[in-house]
Amino acid sequence: MNHGELNLLAFDTSTEHLSVAVQRGGDGARFTHAGAGGAQASAALIPAVQALLARAGLALPDLRAIVFGRGPGSFTGLRTACSVAQGLGWGAGVPVLPVDTLLAVAEAARQHTAALPDWHGEKEALRVLALLDARMGEVYAAEYAWLPAAGWQTLAVPAVLPPEALTTPPAGALLAGNAARVYEDRLPEAVRALPRADVLPTAEALLDLAPALLTAGQAVPAEQALPLYIRDKVAQTTAERNRR
Hints:
Elements: E1 8-12, E2 17-23, E3 30-36, H1 41-56, E4 65-71, H2 75-92, E5 96-100, H3 101-114, E6 126-133, E7 139-147, E8 151-161, E9 174-177, H4 179-182, H5 189-192, E10 196-197, H6 203-215, H7 238-243
Parallel strand pairs: 1-4, 4-5, 6-9, 9-10
Antiparallel strand pairs: 1-2, 2-3, 6-7, 7-8
Helix pairs in contact: 1-2, 3-6
């Protein structure tokens, strides 16, 4: 599949930022929206979707899939993304494509790196340690490699852990996400020394990931739009906060 064949809607609400995009398959044009996430995403997401579809001249049934960041991330944000994907997909008879948010971070980092003057283009492999702030003194972490002939490969699946517990990828890896600036003084020295891309999961990154994932058969019926939770707790007790 190439981008020109696909009408897609994509959104991510897993962080404090809301990102929405529509891709029009006929000419590959993209229409994007960025705004405040968190608690505000539930009210802002559907109007943003409607506005972008109108700009693109598309209706929901015209879509090949609804692509969304499934987590890990904010519990409230993930519930918003899943419920909206389910509702829109179910009503329009359109499948959904759940995507790991840390993979979207890695793809956003690849896009960021590709814009740098010393980048040698898509012929160059890339290894990414993707980190997002998980709050409560922890990070969401996963490791990926992008290979020119094979695309993205998962080297370490998403996990939640203290920053001090991170292991260091080989030299030349890229540190991506928002957790490094939050936990700068708690990262292992070798991780702190990695080159960085201060990026978040974006709807445009989801659009770029979608063709390969659709080809791999990862789209599912709307009722299977489920979040990826890798932490059971959403809050700490007073004693736990005091110990930290």
